[in-house]
C-alpha cells in the first residue's frame, strides 16, 4: 500500500498513514462498505469478493478514457495493458521501459560492439505500437545523466562493463541477470528514443527504499534537458515528490518538459491538492498531466483518480473563489490537465 | 531565542520573528502578563520572577509525562534530566551523545588501537540507564555516512588522525579539545549503538550557523539507513526542517525510521501545523514523534508543547472536517504521535 | 512573461499559467479592460496603447517610493534607472553588476596581473552613486563559492585563464566576449564589495533555463556567508524559490543576511502569500525585503507590487485572525518588510 516493503514491528499499521486512511475513506464504498470501514472489515470484504471482482470494480470506477501502461516491470505477475483497458473500459496504450528492453538486447548479444545497432533496431520494433518509453535511471545510476549523446564507442565500452560485471559469457545470459546502472547507457537509451521522437518518461523522486532520492532530484536532469530541448522530444517527469516544485520550474523553462505528481497523489491522501498547487506554481497548465502510477493494488487506479479530481477541483475552484481566474478558465484548464495535454503529447488520438 | 548567535545591528529584534511573536503570545500569560505583552514588559517580568520561578512555571506548564534529555552538550550550564523531570513532574530519561562519549574515551587512551574496545565498553556502561543515543554528525562531518560498519582497523586510523590533529601527546589531553568530525568515526559510533539495540537519534537539518545544511539533508543517510534496517535499531530523525518531507519519505520506506519536527515546531511559531502536515504526508502516524528540542530558554518546553498540541489538533480536526478520517481515528492517531510511539520505540515503560 | 524563452509547440499558451492568469486579472484593468480579459483582447489593447503609455501606466500604478535597479544586463535595450524613476515617480538607485564591471575591466587590461587593482579602483569609481552590487555567480560558476578571500595571485591566474579562454590577445577584446564563470573570480568580486561595505545581492534559485538550479541553492553560500559575517556586509539573497525556506534559515542564523521572494512573487501569481509565509517561517521580519525583479515587461512592476501587498496583507491579517499577533504588530511588521528594511540596509535615505 505504500512504498515500504511492509510494516515493521515498531511502526504500526500502514493503514495509519494518509494513504491508508484514504483507502478506508474512498475505496471501502466501492466494496459496499461504509466509508472509514476498519482495516479488518476492509480486508475481509476484499478477500470475500476476490481479486477479479475487486479489480473490476476499481478499474471500472476510475472513469478513465485511456490508459498508458509501463510494461517493463514484474510483467508476469501483472495484468496486461489490454486486460487493464478491458476492465476500465478505456483504450490501453503501452509505455516501453528502456532499461528492460536494453537488458534483454544485451543478454542476446553476439558481440558487445553490435549493441548500439541492435538496440536501435529493437526499439523501433518494440515501440511500433507504443506511445512512449520510460527511463528508470533514478533507480539505477541516478538522474545526473550526460547532457550530450554518448558516442557509440563509449556505449560499447559500457556494455562490455555490464557484461563483465555479470561475470560470465554473454551467451545464454538471462536478461534479468543484467542490470543497467550506468549514466552512459541510460543516456544512450534516451537519445535513441529522442531519435524516434518518442515521449520519454523519467521516474523522478518518490519511490521505494531502492530509489535513493539523493540522486533523484529532477534538477539533476538539467543538462540532459538542455541537450534534448532542440529535438522537441517530449520529456515527462513522473511523480517528482518531494521535488515537484523543481519539476514545475523545469516544465516552465523547457518547452518540451511536462510533469505530474503521480504516485504521490494517492500516496499523500487528502493532501493531494497541496501538491498539485505547488507543482502548478511555475508549471503552466499546459504542461501538467494526470498519472496514477497505480501498481499492484487495483485500489490505486480508483483512489488516484478520485483524489486527483478532487484536488484539481479544489485548486481550480479555489482560484475562482479568490477571483484569480474565471469559471470558464477553470473548466478549460481542467480539461487540459485531465485529458488534453496527455492526448496531445502522446498523440493518443492517432493511436486509437 | 533563535538559532542565531544573537541579533545583528541590521536585522532588528528577534522578537519580530515568528518564534518571538509566539513567545509573546503563549509565554507571556505564564508570567502573568497579557498575551502579546511587549518585549520590554516580557523581559522585565521575567527578570523580576527570576530564572528559578520562570523555569518552574514553564516546565510545569508543559504537561509532559516523560522527558528524554540529551546530556552531551554544555552540561555544566544546564539542568540535569532529574532536575528537569522534577520541575516538569515528568519521568526523566537520558539520551547519551555519542560523539561526546567518544571524545572523552579518546582523550583517555593509552594507545589508539584500544579505542574500539574502550568505546564499546564505555557505551555499555554509560547507557545502562539511558533510553537512547544521539549522533551530531550533521554538525561535524555531515550526514553522508558510510552504509557499512567500518572495520576496527579503519576506526583506529581515524582515531590516530584525530589525536594527531590535536597536535600533541594523547595523555592528559582534555576531552573538549578533541572534536570528532570523521564519517568513519560517526559511523562506528552508530553501529556500536546498533549492536546494543539502542535507539539512535540524528540531528538533522535546522540548527545554528555551524550546522551547514548542505550536508544536513536526511536523504544523505539513505545508505546508512539501508545498512541499519536489518538490525531493527530504531533511528530517530530529529528536527529535519526544511527537509521534513524527505524525512517523511524515509520514515515510510524504512521500517525502523522515525521522524519529528522538533526545534522547528516552536521555531516557526504559528506555522507549526503546516510543518506537521507536510511531515505526515508520507510518514505514517506510527512513525512521527513529539520533540521540543528545548534548550537554554525554559520557554521552549512550554511553547513547543503548546504549539505541538495545537498543530496536531489542527491537522487531525482538519481531516475530520474534510471527511478524511473519523473522530475516533483522530483520537487514536493523536495518542500515537503524542505519546505511544515514543513509549514504544524508547521502551519507556520498562524504564520507569 | 515567464522564465521560458518562449512557448513551445507542445505546451500551450503561457497565459495558461499562474503568472499569465494574474496578468489577465490584475494588469488588464490598468489598460482599461475588464479583469480576466482574454489574451487576445489584452495583446490588442496593449499594442493599441503603445509601449510608452503601457510603461507609464504600470510604473505609475506600482506605488513605489524607491527603485533599486540592476544596470548590468541588456542595458541598451532597457530603460535607465532615471527613466524608470521618472515613470514611477520614485527615487531611482543603481545596483552595479559585479561580473559586468569585471568583464569590462578585464577587456581593457594591459597585463593580467593588474586586474585586482584595476577592478578595485573601477568598483570604487563605478559605485560612487550606487546603493549596492549584484553577483550573478548562480548563472555562471554556481553558488558554491570559496569561504575565504582569494589571494590576488589566484585571482590573476583566474584572469589569465579567462583571457586565454577567449582565445586571443587581450588588447581590443570587447567586454561582451569575456564571460566570468570561475568561483575564484566571483568570490574576489564579492570580497571587493565587502571592503567597501556595499550591500551584495546574489541571484539565487529561480531564473531561466541557463540558471542550473542544481548549483543555485542558497545553502551553497554557507561557507562564504560565514566568511562575510564578521565584515557586517549586508548580503541580499534574491528570489530564492524553490529554496526560499533555506534562504529563511540563512537569514535567521547570519546577522547580515536578508532575503526576498522577488521574481517568484509574480511568477506564481495568486500563490504569492504561500511563498512569503514559507520564507517568514524562520526569517525574522527584519530580514525580509520586497523585490519585483521586474524585467522586460512593464506589467511586472505593477503585478509584483499588487501581489506582494496582497500576500503580505494575507500573511499578517491571517496572524491577527488566529491571534498570533496584534493588529499593531501587523502594521509595524508590514512597514518593515515593505519599506523600512530596504531603507535601512541600502541606506536609501542617505542617498536622496
UniProtKB/TrEMBL annotation, chains A, B, C:
Domain of life per record: Bacteria
Organism this protein belongs to: Actinomadura logoneensis
Nucleotide-binding keyword on record: no
InterPro entries for this protein: Amidohydro-rel, Metal_Hydrolase
Domain named Amidohydrolase-related: residues: 116-347
GO terms for MF: hydrolase activity
Name of the protein this chain belongs to: Amidohydrolase
One of the Pfam families matching this protein, by short name: Amidohydro_2
Keywords: Hydrolase
Amino acid at each position: 500500500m505504500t512504498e515500504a516493503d511492509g510494516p515493521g514491528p515498531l511502526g504500526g499499521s500502514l493503514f495509519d498513514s494518509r494513504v491508508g486512511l484514504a483507502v478506508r475513506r474512498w475505496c471501502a464504498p466501492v466494496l459496499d462498505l461504509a466509508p472509514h470501514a476498519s482495516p479488518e472489515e476492509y480486508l475481509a470484504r476484499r478477500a470475500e469478493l476476490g481479486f477479479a471482482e475487486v479489480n473490476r470494480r476499481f478499474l471500472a470506477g476510475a472513469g478513465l478514457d485511456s490508459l498508458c501502461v509501463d510494461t517493463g516491470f514484474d510483467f508476469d505477475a501483472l495484468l496486461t495493458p489490454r486486460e487493464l483497458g478491458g476492465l476500465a473500459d478505456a483504450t490501453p496504450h503501452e509505455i516501453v521501459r528502456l532499461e528492460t528492453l536494453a537488458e534483454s538486447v544485451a543478454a542476446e548479444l553476439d558481440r558487445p560492439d553490435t549493441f548500439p545497432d541492435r538496440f536501435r533496431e529493437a526499439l523501433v520494433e518494440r515501440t511500433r505500437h507504443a506511445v512512449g518509453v520510460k527511463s528508470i535511471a533514478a533507480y539505477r545510476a541516478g538522474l545526473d545523466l550526460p547532457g550530450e549523446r554518448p558516442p557509440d564507442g563509449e556505449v560499447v565500452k559500457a556494455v562490455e562493463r555490464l557484461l563483465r560485471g555479470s561475470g560470465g559469457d554473454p551467451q545464454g545470459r538471462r536478461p534479468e541477470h543484467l542490470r543497467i546502472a550506468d549514466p552512459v547507457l541510460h543516456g544512450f537509451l534516451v537519445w535513441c528514443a529522442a531519435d524516434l521522437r518518442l515521449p520519454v518518461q523519467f521516474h523522478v523522486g518518490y519511490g521505494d527504499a531502492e530509489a535513493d532520492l539523493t540522486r533523484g532530484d529532477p534538477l539533476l536532469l538539467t543538462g540532459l534537458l538542455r541537450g534534448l530541448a532542440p529535438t522537441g522530444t517530449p520529456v515527462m517527469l513522473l511523480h517528482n515528490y518531494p521535488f515537484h516544485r523543481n519539476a514545475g520550474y523545469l516544465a516552465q523553462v523547457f518547452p518540451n518538459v511536462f510533469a505530474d505528481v503521480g504516485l504521490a497523489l494517492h500516496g499523500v491522501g487528502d493532501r493531494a491538492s497541496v501538491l498539485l498547487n505547488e507543482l502548478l506554481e511555475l508549471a503552466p497548465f499546459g504542461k501538467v498531466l494526470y498519472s496514477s502510477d497505480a501498481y499492484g493494488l487495483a485500489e490505486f487506479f480508483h483512489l488516484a483518480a478520485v483524489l486527483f479530481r478532487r484536488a484539481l477541483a479544489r485548486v481550480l475552484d479555489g482560484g475562482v473563489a479568490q477571483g484569480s481566474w474565471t469559471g470558464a478558465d477553470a473548466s478549460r484548464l481542467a480539461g487540459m490537465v485531465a485529458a488534453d495535454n496527455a492526448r496531445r503529447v502522446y498523440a493518443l488520438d492517432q493511436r486509437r
